[in-house]
Amino acid sequence: MIIVMKSSAGRKELAEVKKRIRELGYKPHVIHGTTRNVVGAVGDERGKAVLQTLQTLPGVESVVPILKPYKLAGREVKPEPTLVEIVPGLVVGGEEFVVMAGPCSVECESQILETARAVKAAGARLLRGGAFKPRTSPYAFQGLEEEGLKLLALAREETGLPVVTEVVNPRDVELVARYADVMQVGARNVQNFALLKMLGQLDKPILLKRGMSTTIQEYLMSAEYILAEGNRRVILCERGIRTFETATRNTLDIAAVPVLKNQTHLPVIVDPSHATGHAHLVPPMCYAAAAAGADGLIVEVHPHPEDAASDGPQSLRPEDFRQMMTRLAAFTDAAGRTLNGAD
Amino acid sequence: MIIVMKSSAGRKELAEVKKRIRELGYKPHVIHGTTRNVVGAVGDERGKAVLQTLQTLPGVESVVPILKPYKLAGREVKPEPTLVEIVPGLVVGGEEFVVMAGPCSVECESQILETARAVKAAGARLLRGGAFKPRTSPYAFQGLEEEGLKLLALAREETGLPVVTEVVNPRDVELVARYADVMQVGARNVQNFALLKMLGQLDKPILLKRGMSTTIQEYLMSAEYILAEGNRRVILCERGIRTFETATRNTLDIAAVPVLKNQTHLPVIVDPSHATGHAHLVPPMCYAAAAAGADGLIVEVHPHPEDAASDGPQSLRPEDFRQMMTRLAAFTDAAGRTLNGAD
Amino acid sequence: MIIVMKSSAGRKELAEVKKRIRELGYKPHVIHGTTRNVVGAVGDERGKAVLQTLQTLPGVESVVPILKPYKLAGREVKPEPTLVEIVPGLVVGGEEFVVMAGPCSVECESQILETARAVKAAGARLLRGGAFKPRTSPYAFQGLEEEGLKLLALAREETGLPVVTEVVNPRDVELVARYADVMQVGARNVQNFALLKMLGQLDKPILLKRGMSTTIQEYLMSAEYILAEGNRRVILCERGIRTFETATRNTLDIAAVPVLKNQTHLPVIVDPSHATGHAHLVPPMCYAAAAAGADGLIVEVHPHPEDAASDGPQSLRPEDFRQMMTRLAAFTDAAGRTLNGAD
Amino acid sequence: MIIVMKSSAGRKELAEVKKRIRELGYKPHVIHGTTRNVVGAVGDERGKAVLQTLQTLPGVESVVPILKPYKLAGREVKPEPTLVEIVPGLVVGGEEFVVMAGPCSVECESQILETARAVKAAGARLLRGGAFKPRTSPYAFQGLEEEGLKLLALAREETGLPVVTEVVNPRDVELVARYADVMQVGARNVQNFALLKMLGQLDKPILLKRGMSTTIQEYLMSAEYILAEGNRRVILCERGIRTFETATRNTLDIAAVPVLKNQTHLPVIVDPSHATGHAHLVPPMCYAAAAAGADGLIVEVHPHPEDAASDGPQSLRPEDFRQMMTRLAAFTDAAGRTLNGAD
User: One Pfam family of this protein, by short name (chains A, B, C, D) (predicted)?
Assistant: First the structure.
């Protein structure tokens, strides 16, 4: 932590800052500048928000943190990439570029079975589908809940595809965990710390989506909540951030992929469906994600987007998904990754 | 809902759109333009996300909603302002400009009692204080939990100030409700719909903070979740939104006050502490809130900001709070509101 | 400047950084931390972007500037407020709260004369009106150019109100200066450095609007461009920044007022018309600006908003402006400022 | 244009709106809804900001534009892609993926010659380099001006690479045009309409960068300024937008590439250097741009980034650029584009 003194601060204010730094368990180290002094507080500052309070002392202009606030999520602690095993033979973060696909919401048996078969045939390795849906409107379809989970399990039985599905309420963690292979935390819950803590105690991979206004650093702190509880199988997912631009539903922060890969050992996938909100923009963003170094994708696919209970406009039809997967292979090749071939 | 057709769309596409509108229970109404056609879908579109799927039909360029998506929160359904009674004689949304104040976190008995006495003496009408703290870092102070709630109850007993405190986990709603007079939903939980639904079933006022990247419309939809469950005592709170500017912790969207007052009958208060992040910016934002037409404030006050377990830099000292309240009276007067006088 | 080393950096990298700091004319000062070292570069770093290049050296994680990059605009160099005299007896930044008002564009003689008389009668002290209009669309009305300037001069002659008007092209600076009392730089030109430099050589007050995505620091650097050329009469103007919120045209960053007043000695006014985009939101934002400590306002007024060539929806009618001014007096009183009374 | 009436609006207000629509030269067409009426104004609304003023009439809730405001820039007017010829045999927007590279600023003869040779050898097709530099600080290096242009011309003579360089002042257009093959408009000047109009009268390709807070629609309107003056050779360039995220200098809006390709016939390239601000993030963003369907790149390369007068941290060293180009080929192949081979 660096404490920047005001140019008007005198010896007394400086002495007070040094005293306070010592009281908090750090060692002060002053650099006398030409127009102002700065004081380094030497010691491990992580998690000690309390150092920020130095800002309230007279003569202090600002307090600048030096260390990254996360530990377990960082490359410094663990330089080698984390390989998250979903089921034997299926790993996210390794050589394979892993595609997850399926409808926004599970709607009925035929819908989920038809989609599961189609995405499997095209090369998807996991089936996505929402049973508990966080919807902006209380009047919108809220998901089939446990009935939806059962249908996902049925689709898994039929196709062999492991299942990723969202949990929104700490109360439902146990229920969802009975059915899901990967537990998804949606963008709106990225700082639902009660939920994150419970998931940290689970022995199951977690797909943690970035929030729509979460900085990279805050995002890694959310991952840290899960890691700190003991669950090390966290998959990150860039899904677009909120900006002034309205041509797309969100703005896909594609540079977040290499930024994250640089700062953390956790795998990073991309959700081009929520990022763009328009089906015709999904394929180019799939290719861009592979090119940028992502470890995989999660893509919305619906057999009849015009009838979808949610997110129809951003869902690919099975045929479009198949074509995207075919073209995708050239990009994952170029990126030095393997892609599961279509049947 | 207005469906805008592409200029290249022909009769067949138009017929398909009309057919589909009818199937969904609306009446289509075509306007033939000079370069393209638009189709109105007449009927109550609220809550029917399904109309958005028309966007997936061939020849459709975009789908533009016309109705506001909320019902119960809107002025059209209930033109007169909602008066939220906290305890007999204390109403938010009426003539009185109501100030809530207290520390970010409850830390110990002496801290909360000292603060409660000081803010009461200066004219505050409710005591704020966090017992369950949603913190970005898992290593930061997470609140005293039930012990904190008990200390708040003690301070209420001693000063007579009703208590507003945050709940973050649906599991804790019942517990917090046993102690709190007003249940606070923090910015990070504004779209924690599981929590909102539970609070909608409570017979207690809810202070619902705007999220840091929540639009006005989404914000009112979150209020709608509570209202739709039957709890009509919702207080809104503008607390700053996330923008590119880093000089302040968030950007106080002061115009949100008249925008909200125009669209909804619910009372609107302002949180200048989280909005700015710096104590010296809090008083001018308090005055601006009163001038903009807010119904009150929620302000962080700490007897010793330099020792605060959280949010020290943005907390007013009791003496600064007292001075702010003294100056505030002139602004609430100018706004035609009354302010509880200091002792 | 603080150079943060990577935790993996060794002695050799550190030595290289120190050597480089010395070469650039600074004195290196190392703080040995528990997990990493940081190096202070002591010396006046302002304007020396070159120190940022230390970031390219091996072993360097980041480079953190300590000094504010502006000099002349800062409070540290000139603690007392700058009083900008417009004409004898009219000063912005002093005790008087100065209101500038008028139409977005000058359209014709009757429009500008009618408006000038009305805003003067209501207490405005300057007349605003655009002759050169920067419009998003090439097909929109681009202003009357010199003809507009002549009409402004006519209105000044008739009412005695000094005139503030925008200049968009360095080529037109001389022309506009022949007519204007205050030269306005619009939001889109806040980083049109060629224009700023020319205005810095003028002996005339400059009204410099903040850009829609300009940080406070960048904004002050733009003011510095004018000040550095010798013109010290710069008036700042917060007019809303671009955010994700679409309920208003821009988001009025009201906290920018005290932030700026704290960092600079230059006067700060507020433009509630462009900030909100809706006439009914303008009065509450005028009151909020006065309460937040602004030195004045610039408000769009049009006798017939429904016929305005530009910005009709955000223009007040003369009668609404008069009412606003009447209510405003109570807020400027509360803020300890005087307001020019209506006739 | 669709005019949405308030639910409280009566027959009189509706009649007034219809009358006004007719006066403005449109045909009104009313759709009677269940809770409110909407009125379509049939006719070509482009460039007629004046319709927006309907918003000021009593009983009107909002005015929703239907047509895109640009004409010449749109796909509807010209469906086939525009091929911008730079010099005979070099076309942007065709089959070839065109890479432009060079230093941020031209600093001296050896620097620009060394860079020009290196980027040519690696496969670049144009040389970039700034002679007029728009810098945030008035104390930062402002460019070599005409001396810089001469050095660029020298480098062109020596290597055969056409030159792209920025113009910031309308006054310098003629001067820069004497040396440059492509005239660049920087992000800060995207709405410098005086400059755009002059460039529209030039017979030379224009590289128009997106502004940091320019929407796609505003961006195309800026292109329209150039096109409307007669110059049809406009190249667009996505270079990152300003958001809350600070891990990168800007946020590369990669989805803007397919969005633009869909709406306009103009070619679109990407600037990964300004978008990210960090050299190590540049190569993955180059690959992502190719994958997303861009027509080329403009990349900053400097032989000694640690000595660069500007933008050192985001400049690739020649060796890194060469490696990037080598890997890039696989991605342009996958995208069905050709890349100029290295020597």
Answer: DAHP_snth_FXD
Q: Residue B28: beta bridge partners?
A: B41
User: Is A269 buried (19+), middle (13-18) or exposed (0-12) by CB count in 10 A?
Assistant: buried
Mean pLDDT in consecutive groups of 10 residues from the start of chain C, 343 residues: 89 93 89 87 69 87 84 92 97 98 96 98 97 90 94 98 97 97 97 96 98 97 96 98 97 98 97 96 98 98 90 93 98 97 64
CATH number, domain of C46, equals 3.30.70.1140
C101 and C58 in a common domain: no
Domain total in chain D: 2
Q: In terms of domains, do C261 and C144 share one?
A: yes
Is residue A149 located within the same domain as residue A268? yes
pLDDT digits (tens, 9 = 90+) for D114-134: 999 999 999 999 999 999 998
Residue A127 and residue A17 in one domain: no
A259 interface with D at CB cutoff 8 Å: yes
DSSP state at residue D307: G
CB contact under 8 A, A251 and D244: no
- Chain C nearest-CA distance from B333, in A, is 8
Residues of D in contact with C137 (CB under 8 A): 46-47, 49, 69, 221, 224
Helices (H), A123-215: 146-159, 173-179, 193-200
Does the CB of D294 have a partner CB in chain A at under 8 Å? no
* Partner B contacted by A46 (CB < 8 A): yes
D251: in domain: yes
Residue type for position C212:
M
Residues D134 and D260 in one domain: yes
Q: How far apart are the first and last CA of chain A?
A: 56
Do A113 and A52 belong together in one domain? no
Nearest to D246 among A213, A215, A241 (CB): A215
- B-D contacts at Cβ under 8 angstroms: 58
Contact B242, B213 (CB under 8 A): yes
Looking up residue D229, the CATH number of its domain turns out to be 3.20.20.70
Distance to chain B for C245, nearest Cα, Å: 6
Report chain C residues whose CB lies below 8 A from the CB of B219. Answer: none
Domain residues for the domain of B10 are: 2-64
How far CA A270 is from CA of A297, B294, C57, C333, in Å, comes to 5, 41, 32, 55
Listed in sequence order, the residues at least 6 apart from D144 whose beta carbon sits closer than 8 Å to its beta carbon are D105, D106, D107, D131, D151
**Residue B220: closest CA among B168, B269, B272, B266:** B266
Domain finish residue from C19, C35, C64: C64
Do D174 and D227 belong to one domain? yes
What is residue B2's three-state secondary structure?
A: strand
Phi and psi torsions of D109, nearest 5°: -60, -50
Residues of B in contact with A197 (CB under 8 A): 138
Interface subset of A 149-188, CB within 8 angstroms of B? 168-171, 188
The tens digit of pLDDT for each residue in D238-289 reads: 999 999 999 999 999 999 999 999 999 999 999 999 999 999 999 999 999 9
Q: What is the ipTM of this complex?
A: 0.95
Please report the DSSP string for B88-135 in residue order: TTEEESSSEEEEEEE-SB---HHHHHHHHHHHHHHT-SEEE-BSS---
Q: Find the closest chain B residue to C284 by CA distance.
A: B292
Q: What are phi and psi of C37, to 5 degrees?
A: -100, 150
Which chain A residues are closer than 8 Å to B57 by Cβ?
Answer: 306
Give the SS3 label for residue C23.
helix
| Cα C151-C152-C153 angle, rounded to 5 deg | 90
Q: B54 and B189: one domain? A: no
CA dihedral B1, B6, B7, B11 (to 10 degrees): -80
* C234 part of a folded domain: yes
Q: Is residue C13 part of a domain?
A: yes
Cβ pair C265, C81 in contact under 8 A = yes
